Fold this sequence. Notes:
By secondary structure, the chain is an alpha/beta fold. The protein has two domains: 2-82, 3-Layer(aba) Sandwich (Rossmann fold); 102-151, no CATH class. Helices cover 38% and strands 14% of the residues. It has helices at 10-18, 32-42, 51-57, 71-82, 114-117, 137-151; strands at residues 2-5, 22-25, 45-48, 63-65, 102-103, 124-125, 132-133. The strands form two sheets. It has a four-stranded parallel β-sheet, sandwiched between helices. Strands 5-6-7 form a three-stranded antiparallel β-sheet, with no helix packed on it. A hairpin with a 6-residue loop joins strand 6 and strand 7 (132-133).
Amino acid sequence: MRLFCDxxxxxxxxxxxxxxxxxxxxxxxxxxxxxxxQCVTEQRVLLTRDRHLAAIADARVAVVHLAESDVAGQxxxxxxxxxxxxxxxxFTRCLVDNTPLAAAPPEMAAQVPPSSxxxxxxxxxxxxxDHLYWPGGHVRRMLTRLAEWNVS
Length: 152
């Protein structure tokens, strides 16, 4: 499943990437027509809080209109609407640019803060933007939240 979040759902989009979903996030000021065209071309499900956008896109692409204003509510609504598995493939996509992550070379471990090196776990690298990811405390907290969203 390929997803597209409008600007209002950028935060949800990053969480979808954290769960392993291929998720594009609309850039600021993107016109509705361009957004819909990109969804059509890339065969993406449009996620939006904008009723007008949902109405005009509905005949051309799959649309999920989310009325919830908080990310937890949106996550639960999305689980119900699309059967999103929030623990599908955690931390396998870059949160910044959506690129699938690759294993980082072992020598990059020196870039990880000393307090996080003891946690162990895989180092991952985004081949597009060179962002390095490691399993620190933030990852454990995020995994807990993803698990909570899977229960509802």
